[in-house]
Amino acid sequence: MQAQVQPVSEQKGPVQSTPSLNQAQTPLVIGGLTVAAILFIYLAAAQSVVQPVLLVIGLLLGYTLFHARFGFTSAFRRLMSVGNGQALRAHMVMLAVAVTLFAPILATGFTFFGGTAQGYVSPVGVSLIVGAFMFGIGMQLGGGCASGTLYAIGGGRSVMFITLLFFIIGATIGAYHFEFWTSEMPAFEPISLATSTGLGYFGAWLVSILIFGIVILVTLRIEKKKNPPKMAALPSASGWKRIFRGSWPLIAAAIALAVLNALTLMTRESPWGITSAFALWGSKAAQAVGIDVSSWGYWQANADQLQASIFADTTTVLNFGVILGAFIASAAGGLFRFNKVTPKNAAASVIGGLLMGYGARLAFGCNIGAYFGGIASFSLHGYIWGVLALAGTFLALFLRPLFGLSVPKSKDSFC
């Protein structure tokens, strides 16, 4: 995912002034709001009441991600390359707020529209280990994670369209191989800190907060030892205008994302997810050209999804909302523009997209469904996903230069 700030070489002489905000691209903002309104009306008329609500939540997620440039990919890369843990500490704040909100929701099962709220608690085994490691490599080559791919597309980042296409292809291949990895490879049963250990939700909440605190202390200790470059704020408006123009503080975005994830849980009975929709889109495309995807083990329990409209899929609606929300935010800030695609970064996007798509299916989710949603749901697999994705990130640091992609250095400054 794009960083909150971008690394540049140290400059000699006077420090340049902070660039001013761009003028809003008003026609694009109007166009984005019009598309969102039309989609909202269609969902309200043709789908369940949940779908238009999820579209609004998706819009807010995309808007928040873009304004804060909230990075999962960049946070992991900065920590592993130069020891900067600022963004990872924002993750811990986000997760702390999320578990605080998720605990009573999951304990009571409360939802807005009936049904029972259930978290993402998945098995721990070879599939998870391989998939998360692959995803960690893929997101560093592909230029963004799952949420980063969506909001970067909303901002007009051209190469991310390639990443998304091959993300979908990789997810579809992963769905085809899913039964092998989950049935033939060894794995433990899903482990919940709340329900599998006897801790209960309050005990699991305490343990989670302790873990987040330890991670924060470790990153601070690493920074004290390595003295990495710091992150400087991007241009932003002042006061209430900052809601619409310029960058948001990482911590504010972390809290907003946690609240929106909790609202998602209470709206559709499960947390925020992204990549299951990619597998659905790819499988529908494969079905359209005559491939019998309904025979795949992945679709045995959800064959009805293959026959229904994609707009009946809650994850699809959230994804469309994220893209539109990021588009509106980028246009409001005058930042929407397509950029140049080179053969090298296109190749990196192809490989990264395939690795992320395939890895997400094996690992029961991506940085959102497995890492964010899993940890918020008190699932052990979410923590393991994070560790293995960090390991994949470390390996990817040696691969990125092969594709002309930068790796932050200790002498770089972030601005």
From TrEMBL:
What is the recorded membrane topology of this protein?
Answer: Multi-pass membrane protein
Instruction: Tell me which UniProt keywords the record has, alphabetically.
Output: Cell inner membrane, Cell membrane, Membrane, Transmembrane, Transmembrane helix, Transport
Q: Which Pfam families match?
A: Sulf_transp
Localization, UniProt? Cell inner membrane
Report if keyword Cell membrane is assigned.
yes
> Transmembrane segments in this chain: where?
28-46, 52-72, 93-114, 159-178, 198-222, 243-263, 317-338, 350-371, 383-403
Q: Which domain of life is it from?
A: Bacteria
Which cellular component appears as one GO term in the record? Answer: plasma membrane
Family, per the entry? Belongs to the TsuA/YedE (TC 9.B.102) family.
What is the name of this protein? Uncharacterized protein
- Per the UniProt entry, what species is this protein from, by scientific name? Alteribacillus persepolensis
